[in-house]
Amino acid sequence: MSLPAHTAAIEQIYEQHHSWLHGWLKGKLHNACDAADVAHDTFLRILAARNATQIREPRDYLATVARGLVVDRYRRRAVETAYLQTLASRPEAAVISEEDKALIIETLVAVDKALADLGTRTRKIFILSQVDGLTYQQIAVQLKVSLTTVKKHMIRALTECALIMAQQ
Description:
The protein is mainly α. It is 82% helix and 0% strand. The protein folds into two domains: 1-93; 95-168, Arc Repressor Mutant, subunit A (Orthogonal Bundle). It has helices spanning 3-29, 32-49, 58-89, 98-118, 120-130, 136-143, 147-167. It is elongated.
């Protein structure tokens, strides 16, 4: 698709549906500033996708993209809150720059999303190993699966985490 056609389609969708999207998001998020941020991010996502001329039901499309962004926003806040609580509970006050905090939180959000996409069993095995500190044998006994199954799921989870870390 040509860039001018894509840009024209985005402009038309923006003019016709931005205020509706903002109002819809304000009702969902109960905060005008958050709604404005998500509406903005929704149009940025559509702009980057370069498929605006193919959108037949703009409100449905906008709502779908915005819902995904809202989920991402809640996931990020949950991860950030958990990270900051963990940091605050440490006996030694570690001094971390705001830039480093942002990078750590971005990485944690990416890992959280990757783990969510792996499936329940893989995620459970990964958490039992990496968070709870159980050995593979202990995990196998607890979940009533073979040691080979635990290893297979850990390889998958660690591979995903390594890919994320390489992208960061």
